[in-house]
Write a structure and sequence with these properties.
367 residues, alpha+beta, Outer membrane lipoprotein wza fold like, 3 domains, 5-stranded mixed β-sheet, 16 strands, 19% helix
């Protein structure tokens, strides 16, 4: 709900694809909610398993044996430098090789010492490729990705999402489990949200949303009952702040210790609802803090984003806000999983994920 103005959805007086201009003299209310539809077309290739074969990396566990020599049978791990050490051989580099290529390389190297050797190579454990399944599933965690795996298979691997029945059973035993919010569930890949509609996938069984996962993907199902507002962008401490009844944009930004130098205050965004079909309002925060415009009342799970520069197109701006939100949610979810605060040196974020962990900014001193 807006203070001093009606909420406007699709078909409002301003073109949905353009960020509206503010005109206080004319009485224009630019801070109205507008529906935008983000690109919601999945790449068709995401619905098919990768054609490239599994390749080895550090941490993968192999069982090696020279055929006909049972005493040579051993289990070894690919070292951090990508090498394996087997029998009389020095370290042999296998990083990036398939199992078949590894077998050929080991046989070639052993041929220097043994006549026509045959080596058995079996993959026993995968540690070089993982996916993250986080949030409100039965068993959130980091899982190996040794074979092609769909999104449904991954959620099943984590025990499935917390449904209404399990939630009520948990309540009966005093548990505090919460339902997953399918509107805001996402897959993060290379720093971008993959446009999967979790509601269609998990509620109606729409397999057109059942993508194959890739190494370092983040699958995240947030809590449906979370009472938080997410303040991101050019503020002193981007974070989720507890929602309080009547909270406004100004109060949320103050809870993040205010804006930083270089923030573009005229185009503060409030994003609400589904990540694929969000509503967005543009707030002239400069007018708000000067008392020249009324503030906007927020709702739980709203995203408040303070930009560094002006934006011309609503859809592109909303996409930026959503991508920033999902990256932040993945970092926070990963931090909770490993039991460390986000931003500390101990949390591991895969290189391929596109997610970066920055050290937290210390809040300004209170005078």
């Amino acid at each position: 709900m807006l203070l001093g103005g009606a909420m406007i959805l699709a078909g409002c007086q301003y073109p949905a694809h353009r960020v509206p201009k503010f005109d206080r003299a004319a009485g224009t209310d630019a801070a109205a909610m507008r529906q935008v539809d983000l690109t919601n077309r999945l790449d068709p290739s995401f619905l098919h398993p990768a054609t490239n074969l599994f390749t080895l990396g550090p941490g993968d566990k192999l069982e090696l044996e020279i055929v006909g020599e049972p005493a040579s049978k051993t289990t070894t791990v690919v070292a951090p430098d990508g090498k394996v050490y087997f029998d009389i051989l020095p370290g042999i580099d296998v990083w990036g090789l398939t199992l078949s290529q590894t077998k050929s390389r080991l046989e070639k190297e052993l041929a220097r010492y043994v006549k026509e050797p045959q080596v058995s190579v079996l993959l026993r454990d995968v540690e070089s490729r993982h996916i993250w399944i986080l949030g409100y599933v039965q068993a959130p965690g980091i899982y190996p990705l040794s074979t092609p795996m769909t999104l449904l298979e991954a959620i099943s691997l984590a025990g499935g999402g917390l449904n209404l029945s399990s939630f009520r059973q948990g309540e009966a035993f005093g548990a505090s489990d919460e339902l997953a919010d399918l509107r805001r569930s996402f897959v993060l890949r290379n720093g971008k949200m993959v446009p999967v509609d979790f509601q269609r996938l998990l509620t109606t069984g729409d397999l057109s949303q059942n993508i194959y996962l890739q190494p370092d993907d983040f699958v995240y199902l947030p809590a449906a009952t979370a009472k938080e507002v997410y303040v991101l962008g050019a503020v002193n401490e981007p974070r989720a702040v507890p929602y309080k009844q009547g909270m406004t944009v100004a109060a949320a930004i103050a809870s993040a210790y205010g804006t930083i130098t270089g923030a573009y205050l005229q185009h503060v965004a409030v994003v609400r609802g589904s990540l694929s079909h969000p509503q967005i309002a543009i707030v002239d925060y400069k007018y708000v803090i000067r008392g020249m415009a009324q503030d906007i009342a927020l709702e739980p799970q709203d995203i408040v984003y303070v930009p560094f520069s002006p934006y011309r197109y609503l859809t592109k701006y909303a996409q930026l806000v959503v991508d920033t939100f999902v990256s932040s949610a993945a970092i926070n979810g990963g931090a909770k999983l490993v039991g460390q605060p986000a931003g500390t040196g101990g949390i591991f974020i895969p290189v391929g994920s596109g997610v970066q962990v920055l050290p937290p900014i210390s809040p300004p001193p209170v005078h």
